[in-house]
Design a protein that fits this description.
five-stranded mixed β-sheet, 227 residues, three-stranded mixed β-sheet, alpha/beta
Length: 227
């Protein structure tokens, strides 16, 4: 893929879908001008939760990761706030995973072996990521994945959560193949809402909705001049 495509992340598209027109215009401008807020703010909590889910003794690793986050020097303009927010986010992720039954899944959780490739939808290049790989065994191994969505200011709606799950399913199918992906184990865990969104067999309907939003995003992009 070349740099001529209009670049957008799946998480930012979910925010765009739920946004009012004025906020949508701001999102497009930020993406085109390269001033969008970095997505790695909650990297400590996401990495920690990935380790917790892959552990045989999750409570032990949870305690160790809480200590690791609390003693991390942090980065940016307000490192203390960053550490505090990551600590709270990890607690929310753990509570949500337990409440939503993720610990009871008959599956292995692993750190993803490969990153997801950006996918092209029209002239938009959409990046995506997941934090834990889910592998179920049987006559044929099935794969899934969990994205730990952490955004206090922009919680997912039922619709944008379903779209985000469908986009993750689409990216995982491209990574492995359609028959190897278990839709029910493609999961978006919204930490601060305590909600889980799962992909479904009719995920293509949500992909079409995402494509419509990306076409609108692309049209707005073309109207913005960079000075």
């Amino acid at each position: 893929m070349t740099d001529n495509y209009k670049k957008l992340s799946a998480n930012k598209l979910a925010e765009y879908i739920d946004a009012r027109p004025q906020r949508r215009a701001t999102i497009v401008r930020q993406q085109k001008c390269g001033t969008a807020h970095p997505t790695k703010y909650y990297a400590l909590a996401q990495s920690a939760m990935s380790k917790v889910m892959a552990a045989s003794d999750r409570n032990l690793i949870f305690d160790l990761e809480k200590t690791r986050i609390s003693t991390h020097p942090g980065w940016g303009n307000n490192p203390e706030d960053l550490i505090s927010n990551n600590f709270k986010a990890l607690q929310r992720l753990m509570e949500c995973a337990e409440r939503q039954g993720l610990f009871e899944l008959a599956a292995d959780f692993r750190k993803p072996a490969h990153p997801l490739n950006p996918l092209r939808y029209g002239d938009v290049q959409l990046s995506n990521r997941f934090d834990s790989e889910i592998v179920t065994s049987g006559r044929r191994q099935k794969y899934g994945g969990v994205k730990y969505y952490i955004n206090k200011n922009h919680p997912l709606s039922d619709f944008s959560g379903a779209v985000l799950a469908a986009l993750l399913q689409d990216a995982m199918i491209e990574l492995v193949d359609k028959k190897s992906v278990s839709a029910e184990n493609v999961i978006i865990l919204d930490a601060f809402q305590g909600k889980v969104f799962r992909a479904s067999s009719n995920y293509k309907n949500y992909i079409r909705e995402a494509e419509a939003a990306m076409r609108e995003f692309s049209m707005h992009w073309d109207t913005i001049e960079i000075i």
